[in-house]
Amino acid sequence: MKDTVYEPSDATVSRAHVDHARYAEMYARSVEDPEGFWAEEAKRLDWRRAPTRIKDVDFTHGSVSIKWFEDGTLNVAENCVDRHLATRAEQTAILWEPDDPEEPAQAITYRELHENVCRMANVLKDHGVGRGDRVVLYLPMIPEAAYAMLACARIGAIHSVVFAGFSPDALGQRINGCGAKVVITADEAPRGGRKTALKSNTDKALIHCDDRVKCLVVKRTGGQTTWTGQDVDLTAAMRDAATDCPAEEMGAEDPLFILYTSGSTGQPKGVVHTSGGYLVYAAMTHEITFDVHDGDIYWCTADVGWVTGHSYIVYGPLANGSTTRMFEGVPTWPSASRFWQVCEKHAVTQFYTAPTAIRALMGQGDAYVTGSDLSSLRILGTVGEPINPEAWAWYNDVVGQNRCPIVDTYWQTETGGHLITPLPGAHATKPGAAMQPFFGVRPVVLEPESGKEIDDTEASGVLAFADSWPGQMRTVWGDHERFENTYFQQYKGYYFSGDGCRRDADGDYWITGRVDDVINVSGHRMGTAEVESALVAHEKVAEAAVVGYPHDVKGQGIYCYVTLMTGVEASDELKKELQTWVRQEIGPIAKPDLIQWAPGLPKTRSGKIMRRILRKIAENDYGSLGDTSTLADPAVVDDLIENRQNKG
Ligand code: ATP
Ligand code: MG
Q1: Which of 219, 298, 443, 484 has the fewest CB atoms inside 10 Å of its own CB, making it the most exposed?
Q2: Any atom of ligand 1 within 6 Å of the Cβ of 412
Q3: Which residues bind CoA (predicted)?
Q4: Single pTM value for the model
């Protein structure tokens, strides 16, 4: 199945901003003359002072410095809101869908967005927030989350969004980590028919913070909350605030936000993104990767707690004057049809989600999808993990009805925007491949040990990048050394992604998973993702995670955690069947040594499997599981430890 190639249809190509020839021409220019290319692209934004110094980058470990558009000045909120007022004041900016389908959706126009952002900015100023101050946002997926981000940007404050599913401890760590002056939260966050008490969580977090930290509270549900002297009713304060607030003139390199990575591989890193380069890159990738045109209804299902929500719900779409959907709920409530019903209800044109959601919905059966009219859809997107070909094919056939190109966008919190992705009208797609670099992006495949660049077209190794792009992170908040050591130390002169990859004979890129997830079985290096894909391709398997464990003979053995489809009975025969299956699918070398039935897998709150925890369990080293603050359901881990197979 891997080598199936899907060419874009004539309709897709003729509508696209970028076709194959244009991609080739633009890409060549972007890497041969980055200064000229990005000086031109910077004109996407309205600058107060247009930049003349375009690129100033040094990847040398010990003196890493990344600057783009350094002498330019602008205001990000002005670019995402004010500049659209002349032509789009009455166009919907944010189309909000609440958790409960019975509650009415809201369409917020650019004029209303401007008013609300200004009101919130004025409230923040009243509470002493100004340029360079940090504000933590701990909010449901409600329009106020976007207002708050843009209000900070308007007055030059730096926001740090913390996903509303995080615990008081995780929230407290992040408030202290960035030295926030203010936390913006809500009384409660409705999600999947349940309510999380955000305000009480915030109270618990604030016990461990400086008492001067103020708490501004949005009334989302009106549910019971406790109020202390420091608390401010933000909904009421906004009502009383002035509807206009001047936008600060910011330097291109002034920080826009701090955002912690998902914590899949270790302790989350406070990634810093700046104003000019980030916005140019978010706007450009949003427009071109999703081939967005006027009149489109674009929907990214992510949460603003993740970078995907920053770049592709708020900043990219609004910089482009698009209509962006915000969804408060979850894919499976009230039923597994919710995504598709919402697509039909709002005639969504671009739909962007994560493999974890696709796999979960695939497991529920096609009937949930086929009951909705999805004829408005044009482009489908995926992000967050390698997507296994099985799930890709389902997304393509059942959701996209074989009509919608799938953009498998590879990128990271650190990269600000897409790095490797097919573009709808320019590239073919292959199930599971991220395909081709975005403009200005120079991927290289390195030999893992020597760090030597592999020149052959067909290559397999670690993925690094030979040059910068405007959306690249600038530092780890408060710890530039960690930034240098994490990304620039191991392979000199490159930005190291931490991911493995393969380049095929056509020069297309396949992400094979994290470098930490590569195992060495009897001298053969293999990505665990390949074994997982084979397992998931079996009709009885819903999800699988594979790690290595010490093996006397082979060096490393293959340990598989397998979640079965609903209704399938676990048995020793089935284990044998799966071992034989993987052996046939990949080869004898990939035959699983141990299989453990896993009712659930440990995942981050953004739905990524935390293999580092599974590795510890497989290695019998579960005394020190590392940072588990971003784990979605800690109880899953106890069950897995209880039933581990490697009881050596
Ligand atoms: P941490 O850095 O704290 O371990 P994380 O890497 O999961 O957490 P993110 O920045 O949210 O944090 O995720 C980026 C990673 O997600 C990438 O490095 C890659 O491993 C994976 N990823 C994202 N998109 C894709 C994709 N389209 N295909 C394959 N892998 C992807
Ligand atoms: Mg990472």
Answers
A1: 219
A2: yes
A3: 191-194, 308, 522, 583
A4: 0.92
